[in-house]
Input
Amino acid sequence: MKTFFAFAGLMYSGDNGGGELTEREVAQQAINGEDEAFLQLISLHKEALYRTALAYLKNEDEALEAVQEVTFRAYEKIKTLRMPEYAKTWLVRIMMNHCHDLLQKKKRYVRDETLNDLGGVSDDFTYLEVEEALSHLSEKDRQLVHLKYLHDIKIKDIADMTSTPEGTVKTRLYKAVKSLRAFFEGKEEKRLDGRGTKVEEVERGN
Amino acid sequence: MTEEERKLKKWKEEIEKREVPDDRLENAIQMGYERAKAKQMKTKRLFIRRSAWSMAIAAILMLAFITSIRVSLAFASAVASIPGMSGIVDLIQDNKGLQLAIENDHYQKVGVTGEADGMKVTLEGIITDEASLVAFNTIEFSSKRTNAFLSGYRLLDKEGEEISEAGGFNTNWNLEDDLKATNSVEIEFKGPIPTEEMILEVEISEEVDEDKIGTISLPFTINLQPVKQEKYVLNQTVVVEGQSITIKSITIGPIKTAVEVEFAEDNTMQIFGFEDLRIADGKGDVWSSIKNGVYASGTDDPNVTIYYLQSNFFKETEKLSLKFNKLMALDKEEAELIVDTEKEEIIKQPKDGKFSNLKMHGPYMEIELKGREEYHHNPFSTFYDADGKELHSMSGSFSKNGNEVAIIGLDLPNEKYKNPLRFPLHAYPSYIKGNVEINIK
Output
């Protein structure tokens, strides 16, 4: 298996000429049920998957476990992916949904780990500030911000993938970023109905 | 760039700065993949797992594999108008005979639901012929018992006596919702078709080797008009690549057409079966073999096998002929596989060597067989150890790795045996060709 992964990596970083498969072709073959293509597809997007998991879960072990789980789920569901060109978005969304579910189950402990885990990473607090602000968005909006600002996925692609009109995606994203601003400016309490309580609860829990 | 965007950019950079534990990440992917494969393997094993009740009846051959959903629009809309039918279209998509029976009102809606342990089975409807019954079911599994599956069926009379003889079934899982499935079961009656109320008993088990966890009883009475099968005695012998084949008789019923075939004892090759046995009317309509279900059964005479075709019972024609061009066959001397499970070694196999990669996972044996895309046959049945002890596998699996390589798995029995093991072959991707046409009428 090791050799295979090395090979897959080579194909991706290579010049992509000749008879090599494009990302879309790899995705199509994976949809058709070819195991090697499936592994190659996951391998292509492993960093996106891992970083998404890490952003949500703040913990390397849990993020790796999430990658395993998402690989498992994606294998079972790959046949339902209708648009191979959006395989990455599709995978990242599975990951986000999975992480969201996990967090729902253990909401109380997350914030605590954030601080411990990332203590030495950054010299300013922007990362923590953004994470804090994101955690106050609805899950839907948070996913949107992830897709756009972490994975650089085009609004049009998000719209296609989620069968939502492009205008709607734009508006939602605009509003999401606006509520981030509101949070940065310290005005969030009034705007985010009910969410503020949760934070207090968590803090009391610590 | 707005302040928010600047912060988001910084956020992204922070996330991307973090090191990716590459080896562990690949390991995680590999583990997820292997878990998925193991589950898939198990699911496929269920597809060809024979009912425990029918184990006693030797030589019922099941050919079941997942086919893609393709139903003609006309048929789908015709069927959608019958209550309870829309959900089971996928079960009859490959069977023109059953479609014809339904179109000709030889289908009885039942609609009885039974429940056990959170699982629901609905007997949607039935089709009968002179000696057997096809039942269509929809199943909802419980989310608490995700490893449950249907492991068997039998028919009981009012006194609880079993009145079913042999049978086979296949289950199609819903791709979007793995708690839902549709299923068809074909059961032969011991005697004539009963007119009184009877019970279809569904057995549910959990995991492959676990015991059953419950049964669901579905009472119903057959109201369908009895039908008379048409039997044609032919006794015609043809020779293909030196092998002599006799078509003894053909019986056409509403569920299936049975073709009784004898392969001569002194043939040099063992014939595993027909690749393209079919019945054609003079008008371009063709009925081919059963693709999802019981496709052949043995008889008391080891040289005589009954092959089943999709039924043309409801299609009136003046002319009918039986045709075939390709048979799966191998020299009798070559038709065995001998392996050593301890050393994970193949000791003997057919000359062209299409078996490879024998692996043992505990008592579970896996071997690869290189065939073509259309090769979907399980080559194994009864096998023997070094002392000649007869062994049986309780379940097996069949999956494809790419288009060509079939991975065949067998659960070896939980008893002592002495290596090497000898498997007489019952299928192998090797063929003979001819051009045969026999007039039926």
About this structure: Chain A touches chain B at residues 1, 5, 33-36, 38-39, 42-43, 46-47, 50-51, 54-55, 60, 64-65, 67-72, 75-76, 79-80, 121-122, 124, 126-127, 129-131, 145, 149-150, 177-178, 180-181, 184 (CB under 8 Å). Confidence is low (pLDDT under 50) at residues 1-19, 108-122, 187-206 of chain A. The two ends of chain A are 44 Å apart (CA to CA). DSSP finds 13 helices and no strands in chain A.
